[in-house]
Write a structure and sequence with these properties.
The protein has 339 residues and is an alpha/beta fold. It has helices spanning 6-41, 58-70, 93-101, 113-122, 163-173, 189-204, 220-225, 246-255, 265-270, 280-295, 316-321, 328-333; strands at 46-51, 79-82, 107-111, 130-135, 154-158, 179-184, 208-213, 233-235, 260-264, 274-278, 306-307, 311-315, 336-338.
């Protein structure tokens, strides 16, 4: 057998090394290209700040996130929320907004008109879009120029005053209603606005309002714990103020066996007799659709303010506990009956 020259063997090894080095370089270049492509195709992370004072709107926050997730915005993947949970007090709003602004948000979501007014003021001079809900009078409050054409950085969901229809429903459940007790803080803007509507609605139905006036947090428990025995029902005026006092309000009415009308379904689940107003989950989903448009680049200036839906919810268990019989006609028309 002929021996292969040493030169040829060394030459073959040399070529093998060159081939191996070239393969490593090509593979490395390919990996870099793939990594670069991945970075280029990965969608940018959207930052959404949320400002909410009242725990009763927490279901709306959850529904907002769920709706956006269904639209492709997955938390931790292409969207990040800056949210500390319900603040519990308007005094904490300014600090919460400043924290959000440090994160350079693509959108700020604010709940209730008083909160939104603070957010609007804090973001003046910026191009940060703001989505609000619910607002009783977004035009009169200065949030937008008009419902059809907001014309600025803000848009959202408005609510007509549900007080008139709510009183009709309450009267159907409490036919003997002649006197209605209304805890009222004259320093609270939302309560003042809703009191005007209630006064007119009550006058039209010959119902006397017995007003329990209080001017501070300290005075409020006394107003709740001493409901006049001659009244047939109690009315909660819609206001962010009540968010932190749901348990106290509901417990007091149950203890004194007085039917309580509220505007928030969570209160009915907690023991109030009825609510006619917003459904947080429905409103949150509605907000998610508007938020999706904004995050994709649509200006709030051209997104009309939408009207929220109202729902009648009745707690039949509470009615039985306080000795009240709810007509079948009402139960059939209710959107939800808690038994």
């Amino acid at each position: 057998m002929r021996e292969q020259p040493i030169f040829n063997i060394q030459y073959s090894i040399f070529n093998l090394r060159r081939l191996l080095i070239a393969s490593v370089m090509i593979w490395g270049t390919l990996c870099l290209c793939l990594t670069g492509c991945e970075k280029e195709t990965q969608p940018p992370l959207k930052v959404v700040g949320i400002v909410n004072v009242t725990p009763t709107l927490e279901d709306a926050v959850s529904a907002l996130k769920t709706g956006l997730a269904q639209s492709g915005y997955k938390e931790g993947k292409n969207i990040r929320y800056v949210y500390e949970g319900p603040l519990g007090s308007m005094d904490k709003v300014d600090a919460a907004v400043q924290k959000i602004l440090k994160e350079t948000p693509d959108l700020i979501v604010s709940f209730t008109t008083p909160v939104t007014l603070k957010v609007k003021k804090a973001t003046n001079g910026t191009d940060i879009p703001v989505l609000f809900a619910p607002s009783g009078n977004p035009v009169g409050s200065g949030l937008v120029k008009s419902l059809k054409e907001p014309g600025g950085r803000l848009t959202g969901i408005c609510v007509g005053n549900s007080g008139i229809k709510a009183l009709v429903w309450l009267n159907k459940m409490v036919p003997e209603l002649k006197r209605l007790y209304v805890p009222f803080n004259p320093n609270d803007r939302a309560m003042k606005l809703n009191m005007k509507v209630l006064k007119k609605a009550a006058a039209d139905r010959n119902i006397e309002l017995i007003i329990g006036t209080f001017n501070s947090q300290k005075e409020m428990p006394d107003v709740l714990n001493h409901i006049p025995p001659e009244v047939q029902a109690v009315w909660q005026l819609a206001s962010p103020f009540w968010g932190a006092h749901m348990d106290a309000f509901v417990t007091s009415c149950l203890k004194q066996k007085k039917p309580l009308k509220t505007h928030v379904v969570n209160w009915v689940r907690a023991g109030a007799l009825m609510s006619y107003g917003l459904n947080g989950e429905a409103m949150g989903h509605q907000m998610s659709l508007l938020a999706g448009h904004i995050l994709k680049g649509t200006s709030p200036a051209v997104l009309p303010v939408e009207q929220a839906e109202y729902f009648l919810v009745v707690n039949l268990k509470t009615a039985n506990e306080i000795g009240l019989t709810i007509p079948d006609a009402v139960l059939k028309q209710a959107d939800q009956v808690i038994r």
